[in-house]
Prior knowledge:
Elements: E1 3-7, H1 14-26, E2 29-32, E3 54-55, E4 65-68, H2 71-79, E5 85-90, E6 111-114, H3 117-122, E7 127-128, E8 147-152, H4 159-165, E9 169-170, H5 178-186, E10 188-193, H6 196-203, E11 208-211, H7 219-223, E12 227-230, H8 236-240, H9 256-264, H10 268-275, H11 278-292
Parallel strand pairs: 1-2, 1-4, 2-3, 4-5, 5-6, 6-7, 8-9, 8-10, 10-11
Antiparallel strand pairs: 11-12
Helix pairs in contact: 1-11
Amino acid sequence: xxxxxxMGHARYTGVNTWISDLAVGLGADIIYLPxxxxxxxGTFIHDGMLEHGVFSQRPLAYYDVLIVSxxxxxxxxxxxxxxxxxxYVIHGRxxxxxxxxxxxxxxxxxxxxAVSEYVNQDVQCDVVIPHGVDxxxxxxxxxxxxxxxxxxxxxxxxxxxxxxxxxxxxRPSQESDSxxxxxxxxxxxxVIGIGRSALEALACGKPTFSWAGAYGNDHSRMYGGxxxxxxxxENFDELSRSNFNGTVSHGVFSSTEEIEASxxxxxxxxxxxxxxxxxxxxxxxxKLIEEIT
Length: 293
Protein backbone atom coordinates (compact mmCIF):
# COMPACT_ATOMS: atom_id res chain seq x y z
CA UNK A 1 0.00 0.00 0.00
CA UNK A 2 1.34 3.42 -0.95
CA UNK A 3 1.04 5.90 1.92
CA UNK A 4 2.26 9.48 2.17
CA UNK A 5 2.14 12.01 5.01
CA UNK A 6 2.01 15.69 4.09
CA MET A 7 4.34 18.06 5.96
CA GLY A 8 3.38 21.74 5.99
CA HIS A 9 6.55 23.45 7.23
CA ALA A 10 10.15 22.56 8.07
CA ARG A 11 10.36 23.78 11.67
CA TYR A 12 11.31 21.33 14.40
CA THR A 13 7.92 20.91 16.09
CA GLY A 14 5.83 18.20 17.71
CA VAL A 15 3.77 17.70 14.55
CA ASN A 16 6.87 17.25 12.39
CA THR A 17 8.49 14.77 14.77
CA TRP A 18 5.14 12.94 14.88
CA ILE A 19 5.23 12.82 11.07
CA SER A 20 8.78 11.52 11.16
CA ASP A 21 8.03 8.66 13.56
CA LEU A 22 4.74 7.75 11.88
CA ALA A 23 6.39 7.62 8.45
CA VAL A 24 8.92 5.11 9.76
CA GLY A 25 6.23 3.03 11.47
CA LEU A 26 3.99 2.89 8.40
CA GLY A 27 6.74 2.67 5.80
CA ALA A 28 5.26 5.89 4.36
CA ASP A 29 6.75 8.67 2.28
CA ILE A 30 6.77 12.29 3.44
CA ILE A 31 5.73 15.01 1.02
CA TYR A 32 6.76 18.54 1.91
CA LEU A 33 4.17 21.08 0.73
CA PRO A 34 4.70 24.44 2.50
CA UNK A 35 1.33 25.67 3.70
CA UNK A 36 2.24 29.33 3.13
CA UNK A 37 2.65 28.83 -0.63
CA UNK A 38 1.22 25.53 -1.80
CA UNK A 39 2.17 24.66 -5.36
CA UNK A 40 1.24 21.09 -6.31
CA UNK A 41 3.57 21.28 -9.29
CA GLY A 42 6.50 22.66 -7.29
CA THR A 43 9.68 21.11 -5.95
CA PHE A 44 9.48 19.33 -2.61
CA ILE A 45 12.34 20.35 -0.35
CA HIS A 46 13.59 19.56 3.13
CA ASP A 47 16.12 21.41 5.26
CA GLY A 48 17.59 18.40 7.05
CA MET A 49 16.13 18.96 10.53
CA LEU A 50 14.50 15.52 10.53
CA GLU A 51 16.52 12.42 9.94
CA HIS A 52 13.68 9.91 9.51
CA GLY A 53 11.38 9.36 6.60
CA VAL A 54 11.64 9.25 2.83
CA PHE A 55 10.97 12.59 1.13
CA SER A 56 9.06 12.09 -2.06
CA GLN A 57 8.59 14.04 -5.27
CA ARG A 58 5.91 11.72 -6.59
CA PRO A 59 2.52 13.23 -7.49
CA LEU A 60 -0.19 13.05 -4.86
CA ALA A 61 -2.29 10.83 -7.13
CA TYR A 62 0.38 8.11 -6.87
CA TYR A 63 -0.64 7.30 -3.30
CA ASP A 64 -3.46 5.10 -2.03
CA VAL A 65 -3.62 6.95 1.31
CA LEU A 66 -2.71 10.54 2.21
CA ILE A 67 -2.40 11.63 5.85
CA VAL A 68 -2.81 15.38 6.39
CA SER A 69 -2.83 17.71 9.40
CA UNK A 70 -3.41 21.13 7.82
CA UNK A 71 -6.61 22.61 6.42
CA UNK A 72 -4.62 24.04 3.51
CA UNK A 73 -3.63 20.54 2.45
CA UNK A 74 -7.16 19.26 2.92
CA UNK A 75 -8.54 22.06 0.74
CA UNK A 76 -5.94 21.29 -1.91
CA UNK A 77 -6.92 17.63 -2.00
CA UNK A 78 -10.66 18.26 -2.04
CA UNK A 79 -10.33 20.97 -4.73
CA UNK A 80 -8.35 18.55 -6.89
CA UNK A 81 -10.90 15.78 -6.20
CA UNK A 82 -8.14 13.45 -5.04
CA UNK A 83 -8.99 9.77 -5.41
CA UNK A 84 -6.65 8.75 -2.59
CA UNK A 85 -8.11 7.89 0.80
CA UNK A 86 -7.69 10.86 3.14
CA UNK A 87 -6.91 10.70 6.86
CA TYR A 88 -7.21 14.11 8.50
CA VAL A 89 -5.48 14.39 11.87
CA ILE A 90 -6.34 17.15 14.36
CA HIS A 91 -3.61 18.03 16.86
CA GLY A 92 -4.90 21.22 18.52
CA ARG A 93 -7.98 22.12 20.51
CA UNK A 94 -9.97 24.95 22.10
CA UNK A 95 -9.04 28.23 20.43
CA UNK A 96 -7.98 26.28 17.35
CA UNK A 97 -11.24 24.39 16.93
CA UNK A 98 -12.56 26.95 14.45
CA UNK A 99 -9.62 26.20 12.18
CA UNK A 100 -10.99 22.71 11.77
CA UNK A 101 -14.46 23.70 10.60
CA UNK A 102 -15.06 20.98 8.05
CA UNK A 103 -18.23 22.21 6.38
CA UNK A 104 -18.11 21.02 2.80
CA UNK A 105 -15.00 18.90 3.36
CA UNK A 106 -16.11 16.29 5.89
CA UNK A 107 -17.62 14.08 3.21
CA UNK A 108 -14.24 13.98 1.43
CA UNK A 109 -12.44 12.71 4.55
CA UNK A 110 -12.31 8.94 4.90
CA UNK A 111 -11.18 9.03 8.55
CA UNK A 112 -11.02 11.93 10.99
CA UNK A 113 -8.48 11.40 13.78
CA ALA A 114 -8.05 13.27 17.08
CA VAL A 115 -4.76 13.01 18.95
CA SER A 116 -6.47 13.30 22.34
CA GLU A 117 -9.83 12.93 24.05
CA TYR A 118 -9.88 16.69 24.60
CA VAL A 119 -9.51 17.39 20.88
CA ASN A 120 -12.33 14.94 20.28
CA GLN A 121 -14.59 17.00 22.54
CA ASP A 122 -14.14 20.00 20.22
CA VAL A 123 -14.34 18.18 16.90
CA GLN A 124 -16.17 14.87 16.96
CA CYS A 125 -13.79 12.48 15.22
CA ASP A 126 -13.97 8.87 14.08
CA VAL A 127 -11.15 7.70 16.32
CA VAL A 128 -8.66 8.96 18.92
CA ILE A 129 -5.03 7.96 18.35
CA PRO A 130 -2.60 9.57 20.81
CA HIS A 131 0.85 10.74 19.82
CA GLY A 132 3.67 8.29 20.43
CA VAL A 133 7.42 8.64 20.81
CA ASP A 134 10.22 6.33 19.73
CA UNK A 135 11.17 4.70 23.01
CA UNK A 136 14.26 3.21 21.39
CA UNK A 137 15.53 6.80 21.22
CA UNK A 138 13.80 8.49 24.16
CA UNK A 139 14.59 6.32 27.15
CA UNK A 140 16.19 6.41 30.58
CA UNK A 141 19.82 6.25 29.52
CA UNK A 142 21.62 8.40 32.09
CA UNK A 143 24.04 11.24 31.32
CA UNK A 144 25.69 13.92 33.48
CA UNK A 145 23.33 16.76 34.50
CA UNK A 146 24.40 20.14 33.07
CA UNK A 147 21.15 22.12 33.39
CA UNK A 148 18.59 22.41 36.15
CA UNK A 149 15.49 23.30 34.08
CA UNK A 150 14.89 22.79 30.36
CA UNK A 151 12.17 24.76 28.55
CA UNK A 152 11.30 22.22 25.85
CA UNK A 153 8.97 24.20 23.60
CA UNK A 154 9.05 26.28 20.43
CA UNK A 155 6.91 28.90 22.20
CA UNK A 156 8.37 31.78 24.18
CA UNK A 157 9.24 31.24 27.83
CA UNK A 158 6.51 32.90 29.95
CA UNK A 159 7.70 35.96 31.88
CA UNK A 160 6.46 34.37 35.09
CA UNK A 161 8.80 31.43 34.56
CA UNK A 162 11.74 33.71 33.78
CA UNK A 163 11.02 35.62 36.97
CA UNK A 164 10.87 32.38 38.98
CA UNK A 165 13.93 30.68 37.54
CA UNK A 166 16.12 33.32 35.93
CA UNK A 167 19.17 31.74 34.34
CA UNK A 168 18.36 28.32 35.82
CA UNK A 169 16.20 27.59 32.76
CA UNK A 170 17.70 26.92 29.31
CA ARG A 171 16.01 26.83 25.94
CA PRO A 172 17.50 25.09 22.88
CA SER A 173 17.68 26.94 19.58
CA GLN A 174 14.66 26.43 17.35
CA GLU A 175 17.10 25.22 14.72
CA SER A 176 18.06 22.26 16.91
CA ASP A 177 17.68 18.75 15.52
CA SER A 178 16.32 15.75 17.41
CA UNK A 179 19.76 14.56 18.54
CA UNK A 180 20.45 17.96 20.12
CA UNK A 181 17.05 18.02 21.81
CA UNK A 182 17.68 14.54 23.20
CA UNK A 183 21.01 15.66 24.68
CA UNK A 184 19.30 18.65 26.33
CA UNK A 185 16.61 16.44 27.86
CA UNK A 186 19.07 13.90 29.19
CA UNK A 187 21.38 16.55 30.63
CA UNK A 188 18.59 18.46 32.43
CA UNK A 189 17.31 17.74 35.93
CA UNK A 190 13.75 18.91 35.21
CA VAL A 191 11.86 19.48 31.95
CA ILE A 192 9.03 21.96 31.28
CA GLY A 193 6.91 21.57 28.17
CA ILE A 194 3.63 20.48 26.62
CA GLY A 195 2.38 17.87 24.21
CA ARG A 196 5.08 15.76 22.62
CA SER A 197 7.75 17.71 24.53
CA ALA A 198 6.34 16.44 27.82
CA LEU A 199 6.00 12.94 26.39
CA GLU A 200 9.65 12.85 25.31
CA ALA A 201 10.80 14.04 28.74
CA LEU A 202 8.67 11.45 30.54
CA ALA A 203 10.06 8.69 28.33
CA CYS A 204 13.53 9.81 29.43
CA GLY A 205 12.42 9.47 33.05
CA LYS A 206 12.58 13.20 33.78
CA PRO A 207 10.39 15.00 36.34
CA THR A 208 8.17 16.94 33.95
CA PHE A 209 6.00 20.04 34.35
CA SER A 210 3.19 20.58 31.83
CA TRP A 211 3.15 24.29 31.01
CA ALA A 212 1.54 25.64 27.83
CA GLY A 213 3.65 28.78 27.61
CA ALA A 214 2.98 31.64 25.24
CA TYR A 215 1.37 31.17 21.85
CA GLY A 216 -1.42 32.63 19.80
CA ASN A 217 -2.85 36.00 20.89
CA ASP A 218 -3.63 35.04 24.46
CA HIS A 219 -1.44 37.36 26.51
CA SER A 220 -2.38 35.63 29.77
CA ARG A 221 -0.30 32.71 28.53
CA MET A 222 2.67 34.95 27.89
CA TYR A 223 2.66 36.54 31.33
CA GLY A 224 1.59 33.55 33.39
CA GLY A 225 0.76 30.64 31.19
CA UNK A 226 -1.72 27.82 31.47
CA UNK A 227 -0.28 24.80 33.18
CA UNK A 228 -1.23 21.45 34.64
CA UNK A 229 1.60 21.13 37.09
CA UNK A 230 4.09 18.36 37.72
CA UNK A 231 3.15 15.08 36.06
CA UNK A 232 2.94 12.24 38.54
CA UNK A 233 1.40 8.83 38.78
CA GLU A 234 -1.94 10.16 40.03
CA ASN A 235 -2.53 12.63 37.18
CA PHE A 236 -0.72 10.83 34.33
CA ASP A 237 -3.84 9.25 32.83
CA GLU A 238 -5.89 12.44 33.03
CA LEU A 239 -3.18 14.59 31.45
CA SER A 240 -2.37 12.03 28.76
CA ARG A 241 -6.01 12.25 27.62
CA SER A 242 -5.30 15.90 26.78
CA ASN A 243 -1.95 15.12 25.12
CA PHE A 244 -0.35 16.95 28.07
CA ASN A 245 -1.53 20.26 26.58
CA GLY A 246 -1.18 22.33 29.77
CA THR A 247 -4.79 23.46 30.05
CA VAL A 248 -6.56 20.70 31.97
CA SER A 249 -5.88 21.77 35.53
CA HIS A 250 -3.82 24.42 37.25
CA GLY A 251 -0.92 23.14 39.26
CA VAL A 252 1.47 25.30 41.24
CA PHE A 253 4.97 25.45 39.85
CA SER A 254 6.62 25.86 43.23
CA SER A 255 4.56 23.19 45.02
CA THR A 256 6.99 21.01 46.95
CA GLU A 257 4.39 18.25 47.22
CA GLU A 258 3.85 18.09 43.46
CA ILE A 259 7.58 18.09 42.72
CA GLU A 260 8.09 15.24 45.15
CA ALA A 261 5.20 13.29 43.57
CA SER A 262 6.80 13.66 40.15
CA UNK A 263 10.21 12.64 41.53
CA UNK A 264 8.65 9.52 43.08
CA UNK A 265 6.92 8.60 39.81
CA UNK A 266 9.52 5.97 38.89
CA UNK A 267 7.76 4.16 36.06
CA UNK A 268 7.48 7.12 33.66
CA UNK A 269 9.23 5.22 30.86
CA UNK A 270 7.11 2.11 31.40
CA UNK A 271 3.86 4.11 31.20
CA UNK A 272 4.94 5.81 27.98
CA UNK A 273 6.26 2.65 26.34
CA UNK A 274 3.10 0.74 27.25
CA UNK A 275 0.51 3.06 25.69
CA UNK A 276 2.24 6.03 24.06
CA UNK A 277 5.09 4.58 22.02
CA UNK A 278 5.61 5.23 18.32
CA UNK A 279 5.15 1.50 17.63
CA UNK A 280 1.74 1.47 19.33
CA UNK A 281 0.71 4.66 17.52
CA UNK A 282 1.79 3.30 14.11
CA UNK A 283 -0.08 0.03 14.67
CA UNK A 284 -3.27 1.96 15.42
CA UNK A 285 -2.92 4.02 12.25
CA UNK A 286 -2.24 0.92 10.17
CA LYS A 287 -5.36 -0.74 11.57
CA LEU A 288 -7.40 2.34 10.63
CA ILE A 289 -5.92 2.45 7.14
CA GLU A 290 -6.77 -1.20 6.60
CA GLU A 291 -10.35 -0.50 7.66
CA ILE A 292 -10.87 2.29 5.11
CA THR A 293 -9.09 0.74 2.13
